[in-house]
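Reviewer comment 2.1 asked that we show a complete input and output for one of the modelled complexes. We chose the S-adenosylmethionine case, as it is the one discussed in the main text.
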Amino acid sequence: MNEYDSNRIADLAKQAGYIKTSNINNTDCYILNTCHIREKATEKVYHDIGRLKKNYKNKKKPIVLVTGCVAQAENNEMLERESYIDAVIGPQSYHNVPSILSKLNDRRKKLNFTDFDVVKKFDRLNTLKNSESKVSSFITVQEGCDKFCNFCVVPYTRGPEHSRSPEEIIEEAKDLIINGAKEITLLGQNVNAYSSNKKGKIYKFSDLIMELQNLEELKRIRYTTSHPKDMTNDLIDCHKKVKKLMPFLHLPVQSGSNKILKNMNRKHTREEYLSIIQNLEKAKPDIRFSSDFIVGYPGETEEDFYDTISLVKEVNFINSFSFIYNPRPGTPAFNFETINKEIQKKRLIILQNLLENIQTKENKNQVGKLKGVLIENKMKNQSNYFGRIRNLTPIVISNANEKDIGKIIDVRIKNYNRNTLFGVKENAEREVAA
Ligand code: SAM
Ligand code: SF4
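Response of the prediction step:
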């Protein structure tokens, strides 16, 4: 979602007369879009600005904007701690970027824009063409969170759940398709909590997927991130009915222990999670999963941790994110008693080794197979091309060419490493189904 927001911020800055540059040491304006999920991310902001100050020591100071969730959470504190920053702008206020830039051109005072006006933001963004021209593009369809997991800052930084109207989303999808998009990933903090209205009727996330599949030039649909609680039967059914919906789902579980899930206020049990996985597998037998895990959460015993390990073995996640629990000020869990750091680190290593082994084995199993690959782009400084198979695994193709970009072609898998597959194109003239 941060990548999507960054692109939209660039579109807004363009309206104020700025163009994107890769030369960060010679720019008039520097916008740092930030994440607040873990403490490290916040410190990274200050390090980046420290580096910037050094680089611009003998040059004209650029306008410096900090956008995103760190700006939201730290707002005035941030302006006081780092005088190099001109404005802090929360994730629901970045539609104000053009007016902020024009105000800052006179450089009078520090600005703080951290209102939660998500409706105004999307009203403004809808008037602006999404200029992204990537084969695989994103659309934010839902923002915010009402779930309040005990460890998480998102409900406080992104605000309450809000869904965009289907009309706005379809319009944006059409724009992206005109620009060359063949795959769209629908985004939201809890994307499957999406719920809107159309002609006086409730319009669900599954309705949105059904409508999107009718866009002819669109070949692949994905969505992320989902909450298990919102994995409704109609959505599971979509995985059976909608051919363009890819057989892969990122469905964070966080822990395999019911006691920890309860202490996290996750609102689902291990058994409920596993039953969703089973139902999805029934709907789409080749579907694969990834997850997020928090290791060393307050109160996690050896037994709780091994409940997570057994769940990983049961689901066989092909790709996942795992983190040591990071206490975040302002969240309920911040006041819980933490467990020993060495134990946390040891458990993270055990979990990550297991996840890596599963991922490597999965990739090894692909060798020799013929896979439909959507070719996204030529790789930087290489003659190779980059694409993804249906379950999202990245693949490097040695004999593709410019004409293959945006097409789904047959690729024979020749080699693998933990993260990536390597292959060669076959049946050059034939474009295959999604
Ligand atoms: N809404 C999604 C869900 O329900 O799982 C997750 C979105 S959250 C922005 C992304 C991931 O960050 C979470 O799944 C969780 O694993 C991780 N995370 C959030 N707060 C954390 C914390 N305090 N410490 C460690 N990891 C955290
Ligand atoms: Fe954070 Fe996701 Fe929980 Fe919301 S559902 S509080 S975004 S982890």
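The two ends are 24 Å apart (CA to CA). We note this here for comparison with the apo prediction described in Section 3.2.
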